[in-house]
Amino acid sequence: MSDDATLEAFRLADSFLPVGTYTVSYGLEQFVADDRVTDADDLEALLETYLRRQVGPAELVALRAAHAAASEDDIDAICAADRRLAAVTLAAEFRESAQQSGDRLLSLQRELRDDDLLERYAESVAADDAPGNYAVVLGVATGLAGIDVRQACLLCCHGFVTGLLGAAQRLLSLGHTDAQRILDDLRPVMAEAADDSAGRSIDDMTPFAPLVDVLAADHERAERRLFAS
User: Among 31, 114, 192, 213, which one is least packed by beta carbons within 10 Å?
Assistant: First the structure.
């Protein structure tokens, strides 16, 4: 990749990016509340499940489709991937969180980049032709920036894991060294998730993590919540 594309990838992967992902735990809060995740080992096992069963077969597939469509200036294909991702995401909180983060990332990109495709995509979201999921917006942003699609997938995985590790540090007694150890251990899982998504079309999005969906539904009705999801 070019230096500009590499630096853009760093920016999009930075926790400093103001897209609100620090407000979500993607069900982790409920796993902790139910004593299903109590330590670093439990947390690593759960994050591996997320990567293999949800992020890889769903978000990364949508990201790849949006990345390819952005390179071809195909707004219809972007919207199709966006709608499909929303359709296969069962938990209402997950859909809402992904769309809120996506809206913030899309707004930010429009502020920083003068690109007609971003404007047309924003119009489609405003017209309810597309939900504006974060993974799809990220696919568009990385495609327009010239970031390699595999690097974009790894960027997405890294951002997802670091976001949940940050949430875990607020929910568990998890030190920075343990968090870094989990991040390091999950590197091959992230790579495998990226590989798994490569041969899938948007019709092949198959997220399947029933317990995650059940606890996400429980979290919607929790009396006390630190996180939005």
Answer: 114
